[in-house]
Amino acid sequence: MTPTLLVAAAFGGLITFLHLASVALAVWRCRPKPRMARPADGAPPVSIVRPVCGIENHIAETLGSSFALDYPRYELLFCVASPADPIIDVVERLIAAHPGVPARLLIGDTKISPNPKLNNVVKGWRAATHDWIVLADSNVAMPPDYLQRLQARWRPDSGLVASPPVGCDPVGFAAELECAFLNAHQARWQYAADSIGFGFAQGKTMLWRRADLDRAGGIGALAAEVAEDAAATKLVRDAGRHVHLVDAPFGQPLGRRSLKEVWYRQLRWARLRRASFPLYFLPEILSGALPPAIAAAIVATELDHPVAATVIGFAVLWYGAEYVLARSAGWHVSWRSPLCSLTRDLLLPVLFVMGWTGTAFVWRGNAMQVARAGETR
Q: Angle at CA 99, nearest 5°, toward 95 and 102?
């Protein structure tokens, strides 16, 4: 056995094993629940803070789901920065249509960080009347047992329970490409990390106990990083606690997306991950199918096996595992899915390089820059 063969086989085998192991962990964690969870006896009241900004795809549906929760006591606090934002009309109509649910619309902006979303939610956090507080993005579709499922993951060592976004209801190739990034790739790795005790917060949904964040400096402490979820992860770990992910993550209806929207969203996240967690960002260059596929081709060449057949067989194994995960979790799958997954994996090395070489990104029309871990400018 030549050194080239040995190295290629060991490398490709290790990466493929990690891929299949992460799929198995995600299948176990993300399988749909057989029935809706009921509220526990004595379930504590909860404040749900939802920052809103502009008209998004499915926005009436996602915000409307806030009013249909099967939970005895909760309040809704919708936060908007600008009094001219068109989303105000949507929120006001929803509040008027559900008089039985305590809900308020809070307008204004509190500049505590370069993060517009965090500036928007400060007033909601401060106005919340309950000790348990959920920060939930406007594009999260909340099932009726949303709060029960979050509470079910709280452990004695928890500092935060979160949920990564899972793309659903895509329209067109670009939206399905976003599903390929969000679901069987990013959510898979997040659940694999969480399953071995190394969870990362995701700003889509975060359940806090007010006292825990107050001990760390309050809502303003999340301004320590340009991304509030990165700051949350570090605060929780510094307190000797853990971030836990909810079982079976909540969906984000995508609707139609442009390729530009998908690309810039992924680029923004890549640069934020590199800035906040550079050592964990390094292995991402190996996270797609391209490196092990090259290793498989080298092994085939060394063994004088047909290269094309070997690479195709590897691709069937790699993407077949992702298909099994998506089907078992009830996530979106279509005839485009293999092409979207392949496109994603071809783009991952480009995202990795641009994550290291660039600092600028745009979030909801706000031009922002991130330099290195914990520093913004």
A: 75
For residue 376, what pLDDT is reported? Answer: 42
User: Could you give the number of structural domains in the chain?
Assistant: 2
Instruction: Please report, for residues 25, 185, 189, 328, the alpha-carbon distance to residue 31 in angstroms, rounded to integers and kept in the order given.
Output: 10, 16, 15, 6
Token pair 């749909």 is found at: 32
Judge if 110 and 246 occupy the same domain.
yes
Sign of the CA dihedral running 325, 19, 140, 157:
positive
Strand spans (E) along 237-342: 242-245, 251-256
Count the neighbouring beta carbons within 10 Å of the beta carbon of residue 372.
Answer: 12
| Residue of 232, 182, 241 lying closest to 202 (CA atoms) | 232
Q: What is the CATH number of the domain that holds 257?
A: 3.90.550.10
**pLDDT recorded at residue 36:** 77
Q: What is the DSSP letter of 182?
A: I
**Are 39 and 22 contained in the same domain?**
no
Range from 24-38, 124-138, 170-184, 276-290 carrying the lowest mean pLDDT? 24-38
Which residue range is the domain that position 86 belongs to?
35-263
